[in-house]
Description:
alpha/beta; Hnrnp arginine n-methyltransferase1; binds S-adenosylmethionine; five-stranded parallel sheet; Rossmann fold; six-stranded antiparallel sheet; about 35% strand; 14 strands
Amino acid sequence: MSDSPELEVIADDHYEMLSDATRMKAYQQAIERVVQPGDVVIDLGTGMGILALMAARAGARRVYAIEARDSIHIAQRVAAHNGYGGVIAFLHGNSQATNLPERADVLISETLGSFGFDENTVEHVNDIRERLLKPDARLLPRRLKTWIVPVHSPGAATYQQFWKNIAGFDFSVAREQSAEVIGVAKVKVDEFIGSPALLTDIDLADGKSPQIGRLLHFIGERDEEVHGLAGWFEAELCDDLILSTHPQAPATHWQQAYLALTEPLPVRAGDKIEVMLKSRPQGWERDDAQIEWDCRIVG
Ligand SMILES: C[S@@+](CC[C@H](N)C(=O)[O-])C[C@H]1O[C@@H](n2cnc3c(N)ncnc32)[C@H](O)[C@@H]1O
């Protein structure tokens, strides 16, 4: 037993991420390639400190590990226990309210949601790039692509139906609310109702707006009901190293993003399906974005 039950809960929260072998291997390899001995590194959203430790082990002179949540207290203890307490400086708070005594050579961030950008990554990275990085700094990841496709997913739809009758009570209000937030599901390629479309392609080095507003069109490939939209990301960590959460890529704890429709949408082969998706940050102190979506037949 730990001396603090709260810290134990935090450790449990991070278990999924730390035991995600695909994620861990990709970041480990990228950090070893990108971080050079003597570098000053920022780890945005250090969690329990794993990526800061990898950067320190790769030879960083100084690592500034920024974290808004209390996991930073564990991270600090872990770093000291592993002999890196002198290299890693821990800063408790939101990155946008954090200042550093020097500019950094490298920004490492793993603030990726199942839909890539949905934890406000772009806004936080933009702020750090402008205020806290050297002009020629290396970003890891440096590019983020997201993809979307309408899906026929009876499993996820069963979940939506579940709320209509729980021991004879109608819990639809809870279902409507659950339909407004991005879910997570294990989507299969044979559930796609059209060809996936590129939703965003964000070069994190170029200061693009964190707002997204897109209308995308898909051609229905068979007669089927659409239950939701599936999304995934490809994070380019460095040359030749892409971390992908496509349904056919090696499994990760992110699985795929799932945006449920309030009601199933019947589609016939050849129908033109229009998808609208808007996303905007909810303020600098938040690490989630507000996302709206809609899906309809337009021809
Ligand atoms: C997905 S977790 C990753 C944790 C750790 N880097 C790892 O790879 O295991 C993201 C962490 O970033 C933190 N975070 C997100 N945005 C932040 C910000 N702008 N400032 C400080 N912490 C942030 C969250 O609190 C969360 O602990």
